[in-house]
Amino acid sequence: MFNPHEEEEEARDIQELMQRYQNLKFGRANAYIEEDDFEKIIEHLDEKDEVAEAIEAANLALNQYPFSALLMIKKADLLLATRNYKEALSLLDAASLYDHKDMNLFILKTDAYMALEQTGMAIELLQEALHLFTGQERTELLLELSDVYDDHEAFDKVFDCLQLVLEEDPNNEEALYKICFWTDFTGRNEESIRLHQKLIDEQPYNALAWFNLAAAYQGLKLHEKAIDAYQFAIVIDEKFDYAYRNMGDAFLRLRKYKEAIEALEKVLELSRPEDVIYEAIGHCYHRMKNYAQARFHYKKAVHLNAEDSRLYQKIAITYMLESKWEMAIKQLEHAIRIHKHINEYYILMGECFMNMDQHKEAAHFFGTVVKNKPKQIAGWEYLIKCLVSSGQLQVALEQTELAYISTQGKFLFIYYRSAILFMMKKSADGLLQLEMALSKSTKWLKKFLKFYPEIIQDNKVTELIGRYKKAKNG
């Protein structure tokens, strides 16, 4: 509890100490200061960011107490703050002669080695220190060592250190938080499951342990087991928003969209609204074919992240699924303004105009895709289908030739050329093109038949296809 009298007394004490220090410093009186008081003076100056003055106080203190490991460690800490790493190390070596079991010696030496990029020395030092300490001090050293291993990119060893911490201190929050990330990063889900099951046996009301167990199950795609464990975490801590968040994701992956929505709505209740949560809820409604609700949540996400062009695309698709082409176009225009080079947006625009029988506009957008990515099949396919749909068969035929060259000989466009020739009543030429395509690859045959289903009524075509299929199977 806050006590103003105590604070006032402490302030008076430090003021009196600082006066004595000033007297000693300037030789105004034969002042004598205790070792512990010097420590307070150094800490006071350090807290006020007067580091140079704090170092001067430490030097004065060491003149009076030349064998004080405590004061040497205090000065070394200040030297580290001023980036005098080698001088700090030298002083810490001297301090270890007088008190080799001070934890701060090892922590500060580690900081110095890390600053000098001598990670190997830091690891060696901490491994040696682990044999000297037990309990809370050993736990601190293990956490320090885990950070050093992280810097050294020895990621499995980070996991090992955190596992040792939790075996000794099952409620250590820092280790519980960190091991969840490192389990996912290293993929050591099975070990994490065993570790956390053991922790839960000893500490059944440890919400973080249940959460980590769930996350490890989720890492193995055991979503139902993960959900069970998340529910235990939530029973223990009903405001555990990350448990609801991950549980929502697990339900989503099981396609249990209603349950996913309930979990994700709880996240919105417990924490600050986020675009990703609204987007995930929108996705669930989208999958449930409730496009109005999907749109509502996608728009909520847009309010929080107006520069995410994908959200406008998702809104547009819900309109397209309801055949509201003009509404979809407005959303896609937003998306294109943000990201001009995403071809999928232009394809969707083209599809909207196609469905509105505005083939010229549709061809413009499909042409943009072709211009942006001439080696990719998709743009050419849409453009050719658009031209065929608008009855421009000769232009479509010419585009199949350009498409074949641009995509470095994709035989799909020989199939399309054959289909267009049949549409133009040039059956002999169409049959020749089809035979050429079949002789090279039957891979695109399904697309050919989907492109021009009526072709199957031509006996010569069915006979030719049958011959090549038989040859392939034989």
Q: What would the average pLDDT be, to the nearest integer?
A: 90
Shape: elongated
**What proportion of the residues is helical, as a percent range?**
over 70%
Order of helices and strands: HHHHHHHHHHHHHHHHHHHHHHHHHHH
Q: What portion of the residues fall into strands of 2 or more residues?
A: under 5%
Global Rg: 36 Å
Span of the ends, CA to CA: 89 Å
CATH superfamily of the domain at 188-264: Tetratricopeptide repeat domain
The main sheet comes to: none
Regions with little confidence, pLDDT below 50 for 5+ residues: none
Number of strands: 0
CATH topology of the domain at 188-264: Serine Threonine Protein Phosphatase 5, Tetratricopeptide repeat
CATH class of the domain at 188-264: Mainly Alpha
SS-based structural class? mainly alpha
By DSSP (H or I, 4+ residues per run), the number of helices equals: 27
CATH architecture call of the domain at 188-264 = Alpha Horseshoe
